[in-house]
Amino acid sequence: MPDHALSDREIDSVMDSIAPEANEPFAINATPYDFRRTDRIATDQLRSVHSLHENFCRSTASSLSAYLRTYVATNLVSVEQLSFSEILRPIATTPTCIVSLRMQPNHGSALLHISNSIVFPIIEMLLGGSGQGGANIEREPTEIERSILDSILRLVLKDLEVAWETIAEIEFVVEAFQSGPQLFQYLPPNEALLAVSMEMRIGAHTGLMNIWIPSIVIKMLRQKFVQQVTTRRGQTTDQEHSRMLRRIRSAEINVDVRLNDARMLLDDLVSVEPGDVIRFDHPLSKPIDLHLNGMKKFSGRVVSTGSKRGFQIATQDSPE
What's the CATH code, domain 255-316? Predict the structure, then answer.
């Protein structure tokens, strides 16, 4: 124990020496949390959505190129989660083409947005034009133009359904064309949506195609995403094998029947006339090869089928 009590001055001196240390703020490890974004989508789900829409971009570019008979390229720009108000902000006052979609069965709804810079050139092409004009039109499509776009929408949505088959069997059905004022009533402003943005180039024109799906729909399919990841780690299932076969059934294959090469002198070649017979080094008893896309697949012989020639298969080459 001290021999004497501390004076007021001594007490003040002690308090002053520890005051700066006491006033230092405590270090707090805090993580920001947005209470408006309670429906956050898991990272692995976002990766799966990104992958399936990359496939969608490739397939829809091929489909539109064949349908419009012009060069079409589609690239995935971003896959992110945004609020409905963030999506509406840049397009609310700009007339554009927005279509509400129904996702069947029981998967809610979605929105498809296509920039005017590619919508009106597409309409011009479908009407027989070159598609060089129409890129600067700032209005919504008319009722007649919407009817013309119907075939394009069905084509795009069919490719979208095929892309989503890896997750779930979903049918995308057009509900209605939406205008700016109607969109404000479509969903609450703070509703979280998965925003998929793609850049589309059609001929000389470039624009965006966006797909907006409520995040709650993606979360409802969480188990489907888990099953997809598990399946990827294992072997290909019979269902996937059947699905791939369905997709390639309509592919065209070049079929060639080939004889062995013949050799002849240049002097003989320049003197060839109609009616001359060129002899090939191929015995009559030896089968002829049939090639599929340049790869030997069958052996057989040439036969007559009515007024045309055909090929009768004798043997099939064993795969290497």
Answer: 2.30.330.10
